[in-house]
Design brief:
heterodimer; A: alpha+beta; three-stranded antiparallel beta sheet; elongated; B: Rossmann fold; nine-stranded mixed beta sheet; 4 helices
Chain lengths: 80, 214
């Protein structure tokens, strides 16, 4: 099944890249943009048919490797 | 007394570290990261560079290298473990030092001498130095901005100015026991006045004096 994992830095942790992109947007006149955050998205194919089982495995992948628990949260989407 | 300098694919400071240890009369050997037995070594240095190309996050892949299980065991028995620059990032990912690193506040790759001040001498990096002593050492990093929401990391060296946004102006942080330390500037590159500074020597000497028999 197709899995999409979004890794985002917790709101209380600084995001220097997001801040720089926000400034650039404002320089270009897009002053309506705020709270710009540079999250990461990981796409993968995972063998199996049971979405709940796959989700549990991918959660374990996030805890062990894909996300840093000090800085980041993760969200998982599973689709056929 | 032997020091293992762990070589992950992509590190680039390993020879400098071996050179400075040997120049001080110490014994250091390069050890490939797949090694599973470090029982012949009394201490470990993780050198700087880009382990595994910094894929995913700095240090995220290196922490699972077989040698890191041995490094963790050595740290638990009190052996000195020093991570320099990328090596510190690996130690954070491994959980041996609290916190993590994010890009420098101004998004610049910083490559210049910085002044740091010794604030705590109860560590394997600073035991031969004096509180308040100032050292001039090269910084060479993009993700040197240390963040520690837990507040458990012990700062042992502090930047005199604030080059990268690191929490508490931390340039080097130790674990609670003082035998595991991460440092962002490169003491091995400040090992001779010909290189612009010999101020890093006292830090490497501290490490060598902290070695305990395996």
């Amino acid at each position: 099944m197709k899995v999409t994992v979004t890794i985002d830095r917790r709101p209380e942790i600084a995001d220097p890249e997001g801040t720089t992109v926000r400034r650039a947007l404002h320089d270009l006149g897009f002053t309506e943009a705020s709270e710009v955050r540079m999250d990461r998205v990981i796409h993968m194919h995972v063998d199996g048919h049971d979405a709940d089982e796959i989700r549990a495995r991918v959660e374990e992948m996030c805890r062990q490797l894909l996300a840093n628990p000090v800085l980041e949260d993760f969200h998982i989407e599973v689709s056929a | 007394m032997r020091t293992a300098v762990i070589v992950f694919p992509g590190v680039n400071c390993e020879h400098d570290v071996v050179e400075v240890v040997r120049s001080l009369g110490g014994d250091a050997d390069l050890v490939w990261h797949r090694e599973t037995d470090l029982s012949d070594f009394d201490g470990v240095i993780l050198p700087g560079g880009f382990a595994h190309g910094d894929a995913l996050r700095t240090g995220a892949i290196a922490r699972f290298s077989p040698a890191m299980a041995e490094v963790t065991r050595m740290a638990a028995r009190g052996a000195p473990v020093l991570g320099i620059c990328n090596g510190w990032q690996v130690l954070c990912e491994t959980g041996l030092i609290p916190g993590a690193h994010i890009p420098n506040r101004d998004l610049s790759f910083i490559c210049r001498f910085v002044d740091v001040e010794v604030v705590d001498t109860a560590s394997i990096l600073t035991r031969n130095a004096e509180v308040g002593q100032r050292l001039r050492i090269p910084l060479n990093s993009y993700e040197g901005n240390w963040v520690d929401p837990s507040g458990e990391g012990r700062v042992v060296l502090r930047y005199v100015d604030d080059p990268n946004g690191s929490q508490d102006r931390a340039a080097a942080v130790s674990d609670a026991g003082g035998n595991v330390v991460g440092v962002m500037p490169h003491p091995e590159r400040a090992s001779d006045p010909l290189l612009g500074s010999g101020d890093g020597l006292v830090l490497i000497e501290s490490f060598l004096h902290s070695l305990i028999p395996a």
